[in-house]
Amino acid sequence: MLNWQTCFSQIFYLWKKPYTINNRTMIFNQVKKFLLLQGSGEIYIIFILGLTMIAAALISGGIEEKKDYPTKTKPTSRITGIPANDNPDTYELDVSEDQKKQATPSPLLTPLASESALADLAVPSLRLTDINGNEKTIFDPGERIYPKVTFTNQGTKRIYSSTGFIFSQIYAHQPQPATQGQKSDVKIWMKNGLYAAGSTKTYEARPNGINDWFFRENHFWTLSTPGTYTARAYINYDHDGIESDYTNNQTTITYRITNKPTPTPTAKPTQTTNTQSSGVGNINTPPNGNTCGKYSLNNPIGKNFGDPNCNFTKDKLYSWLKTQDAANADYWFYTVIPCEAPGYNPNTYYRCGAAGCTPDPAGAWGLFQMGRGRNGPYDHGDVNWPAQVINATTYRRNLGWHGWTYWACAKSRW
What we know:
By secondary structure, the chain is of the alpha+beta class. Helix content is 25%, strand content 14%. The chain contains nine helices and twelve strands. The strands form four sheets. Strands 2-8-7-4-5 form a five-stranded mixed β-sheet, with no helix packed on it. A three-stranded antiparallel β-sheet has the order 1-3-6, with no helix packed on it. Helix 1 packs parallel to helix 3, helix 7 (314-324) crosses helix 8 and helix 7 (314-324) packs parallel to helix 9. It starts with a helix and ends in a 15-residue tail after the last helix.
């Protein structure tokens, strides 16, 4: 016969077992029987005891069965020692090559498909420069060519990769789109960081260029055969970074290798005093103190060196330029001279000022701002204006195309 002691023992037995839905139901059934067996005199005390045991069973059985759950720890990035929440979006991650090789993807950092699909790398600009950073599309045979490229993430999420980096390639001549995993033909490649959404960065391979240290092997290439070539930049070339669109990861620029005529040294023309034939007067007139009513003789010698005959006019200058360098007369007259000597002043002198100091300690003289012989006999601007024209045109001609680099105001011809 079931009595309250037997019922109580069964409740206690079920209470000690692991918590399950079935055990909980059996406990309630036993309590129900327990209460029905008791009289009204004992029912209140036993009812309270039953409720207490039920509560204890529910509390002690709150965890289904004891399991060894993993300890929750702070996830780290794929690269050892860089916390995942240290916001690498804002800077380029950089570790040693050994760390890079040892780095493996972490399941904790694998992005959701919906997230990774929102990163989108692109190449908005590829340009080519010489060693001085001048952007050009025409180079001499054997001249060093340095890439200058801009990369951007135009998506709304940071780019993810298994290595923690993005790798990019530069090709000297790649007219057709490069294929996935295709390496540079001139071994010019970069190791870039993880681009944050909307971030843009420019890289110059030339020495001391912008972010030049990202180029890991070569920095320039040269070509000896004249012709037209197509340079190409390819970001995320191996597609290790997860993007929504890989079709805009490349861009190109067309450039030419052109043979310049070998300059033939030109003898300095015989100076003449025949004013009838030249219209420039005596080229050999030495400096004097004549201000011609318009010159301030603010130079180390305190004399009128540029127009000692007081016969300078812009018309005569242009005609003389046509005589000495007809092909470039307009460029000299309209571009170089007004930039080097504002106001077409043949007595212009400059040594140091807001633009810095001249390379020649003797300063810059005349219409072409040349020196006092530091670079040879034609590097003289401290002479009569017709001689200034002869020296400048001859100096440029003797050096060929590179002769223009003497003048900052002739940068468009560099």
